[in-house]
Every structure is written in C-alpha cells, then in structure tokens.
Amino acid sequence: MQFSIACNWDPALIEGLRKESKYVDTLFGQITDDPFGGGRGSFLVPKVTREQAKEFIAEARRAGFHFNYLLNGACLDNLETTREGNRRLFEHIEWVASTGADMVTVTLPILLVWIKRHFPQFQVVVSSWARVANVKRAKYWEDIGADEIILAESATRDFAALRAMRRALKLRLEVIANPSCLYFCWLDSNHINMMTHAAQGGHVSGGFVLDHCQVYCQRMKLAKPDELLKARWVRPEDVGDYEGLVDSLKLLERFRTTETLMQVVRAYESRRFDGNWVELITLPRRRAHHPPNLEYLIQPDRVNIDWMLQMADIFGYSFSDVMEIDNRALDGFAEHFKTHDCFHSVCDECRHCAEWAARAVRVDEEKRRAVLEKFDRFIEAIVDRRTIAENDLPDVSRVQLAPDAAAVLDALMQFVPPPLAPFARTKIIVGAVQLMNMQRTAGAGTAGDGGNGAPVSLQAIVQSFWLGTPDPSRDAVREGLERAGLWGFVAMMESP
To answer: Which residues sit opposite 174 in a β-bridge?
Structure first.
C-alpha cells in the first residue's frame, strides 16, 4: 500500500521520509494566500514564500517523491469566469508548473478540464471535497479525464461501494486514513467553503475566519466519544483491508510538526500503533502542531479581540489529555463495517460504536467538564453576537508605571504577537490597576491604583500579564519569566 503525506514545508520532513519510509509516494501541500483557496485556512498552514516552496518541491522530487499541489478550493466566488480572476488563476497554475510539481488536486470540474487542456503535463486528482462516494459520481469524473479520486470520508467504511468502484473504474483511488471529521457531518458544506475562503488570497475576508464549525465539532466529540469512533478513519492495523480496493492512503495533517508527521508514517507503515489513538487523528494536541498565523485572526476591525483570545485558549488544550482511546482495545472494531450498511442504518439501534466506546474510551471527567464549559461559553457568545462587539479599550495614558514596571512591560511584549501588542499592553495595565486596588481594599498595603496613588508596581504588571496569558502559551511564558527572575511574583499569587 502506498501513502501520500501532508507537507508542512519543513525540509526535515523530506529527510525523515528519505531515511525511514518505504511506502510514501507523494507529498501534498499548498502555500498560504493561494488564489484558489483550499482545505486549510491560511491561519493554520506554515507560511513559506514561493521561492521556499519551489525549493522544497524540487528537493522532494530529487528525493524520489511525487508532489501534489492543491488547487482544491470549493468555491472561487465565480472569479474563474471573469477576465481578471481567470488570468490570476491561470498565472498561478503556471507558477505551480514551474515548481516541478507533477500532480494537482481540484474540487471543481471546470478546473479539471481546463487544466487538462492547458497543462497536460499534470496528473489531476479529484479532492475529497468533491464528495465522491459511489460509482456514478466517480464515473462522471473519470469520463472528463480525472487520473485519481480521493474519496469522500463517508465512503471509507462502505466496502460495498469501494468494491463497486474498484470494479468499474480504471483511475487510481485513495482514502484518507486519519481524519476525525464527524460521519456525515451537518456542518460539512459550511465548513469546506469557510476554509476555502480563509485560505484564498485576495478574498474580502482577508483570511479572517471565526471557525464556529470547529467549535461545534470539537464539542460533540468531547461530549459523545462514540461520535469519534464513527469518524471514518482507518487504523494502521486495518490497512490490509484496503489492499486491492484502493491504491493509496492519505495521511494528514499539513500543520503537524515533522516529528508528529513521522509518528503517523511509522505507525501506518508498520501497521501497528500501541498508544492513544487520538494522537494519530486530526485533533488538538499541544506541541504537535505549528502555531497559528495570528495575523489572519487578530483583526480588530472584524472581530472582538477578547473573544478571539478566548478561542485561542479553548483550542489550546490537548484532546489526548482529556480522552484516551487505547488503540489496542480497538482490535476487531473494523470487522463490523465489512458487512454492515451504515448509510441505511440507525445508530441508536445498531449501537456498535457506542458499545466499543464504552470499552475502549477513558475520559478525565474534570478536564472534560472544564473544556466543555469553555466551548459552551464561546458558542453562546457567537450566538449572542458578542464576538463582533467593538473593541472599546480604556484610556490608560494617565496611568503611571513604576520605572522597573515600565521596562518589564516593554520586555514582556516579546511574548505577544505583534497584531495583539496594542491591546495586550492596555489590558495588562488595566489588569494591574485592578489587582492593586483589590490588594488595597483587602488591606494588603497602600500600593495605590496607578492613577490616584503610587505608580503601578512591577509585581502587579507581571501578575496581570500572567493572568491574561492564554493557556497554550503559558509554558513558554513561564520559562521566560523564570529566566528573568520574575516568576516569584506569579508563585506568590498562586500560593495559599
């Protein structure tokens, strides 16, 4: 069985694959702000220049791998039919051709025939976003020249459909091995268009997206673990079930670190994994993913910054800290799907996934409750339209800072993404004033309020900064505070 692997644009990935992999045949990827848009918003995918991407693709080809460049946006705002839009898209494909990429992936049928006419050197792959799940739809694509189809996730465990497509089709077939998307997710159409435009350079949204689909999706998986078992992944141990039915398995995710991408490759090539299954599928996991490109998310003219910071805090948790699915406990789970028709079944009557979840899933209830509460607060804020409230920052120009506090505040800004700096500085000062007032009210001293009393202290600045630091950033911030000899102020606050 061959594999295609997500490209994170790290040259170390090519070297790792060259040394360790026997069966990875293709890397797939896309640069940020691509005019076609694609499957992952620009805030998610590691940023590279065109020159860096071109060198990466050339190195991958020299190492013996194919490269599949993604042109798989699900909606181009009809710009492909306009003179200027068409020209921009065509010029981008010319650039892709110049990189040496030998394959492209598309979602829109018109792009397939267009590329076949003008760029016949490319093998053209049909994206899973085209939602091909049966012979009839697949045949349409084969008849207009498709070389390969990445099947919809809904087809992955539909073995009757897989057998029928294999009999009827001459083109290559691929299934995605490690997704976590909900089975027949009701957010699907919304989400693929949302991600397309969040990745589309020049779009009116400027790359900004408040991914409410992901919020609802993650909440359901946490609350109902059997939904995660219903997701159409393929365990490494079950790869053999797909031999003779498909030509390759697709391994995600483009924003994973090289270390965790290689973890996925090793598991699938060895056809065994002895860990927590949620580590291999596409779920939040601290230090397993590249940090987001915050300039696309921190856009004060579009969104309330306080709520966007809360969203960062929500997604900063590690799913694997909350839920463990012992992969060994799933041995035998997939046998059911070889004969069962999920499409025409009622989950509450079947209960196969629910019963296996009861046996294989372990949950830290305290951590789950804490994360679910954060999700619920954020969902309520979206529905109540608080996420689009104006960013009304108080005037702190008259607040005096102690000299050492002012110097440290300037130094602390290194931990703050540049788009956030003006907001963070103001919030830290306001928080420090509030802390000092609370201390004075409690009789802890006469530190003042920063406006009517003594200047704001170093202690208050450090403590306010720590209290406003999102959870995903706290490890790095703590290390920085310890190096600077400032952690004692936080420890003082946290001690009984």
So the answer is: 150, 248
Closest Cα to residue 493, out of 473, 469, 415?
Answer: 469
* Overall average pLDDT of the 338-364 stretch: 97
Of 491, 473, 483, give the one whose Cα is nearest residue 411.
483
Assign 378 a pLDDT band (cuts: 50, 70, 90). Answer: very high
User: Cβ distance 245 to 211 under 8 Å?
Assistant: no
Pull the structure tokens for residue 404: 């050492």
Q: Are 216 and 315 in contact (CB under 8 A)?
A: no
Please tell me the distance from the alpha carbon of residue 34 to that of residue 457, in angstroms, as a whole number: 47
Which pLDDT value is given to residue 446?
42
- CA atoms of 190 and 36, how far apart (whole Å): 17
- The domain 2-206+232-289 is classified under which CATH number: 3.20.20.70, 3.40.50.12780, 3.90.70.10, 3.50.50.60? 3.20.20.70
User: What pTM, to 2 d.p., does this model score?
Assistant: 0.90
pLDDT tens, position by position, 215-245: 999 999 999 999 999 999 999 999 999 999 9
Residue pair 375/322 in contact by the 8 Å Cβ criterion: no
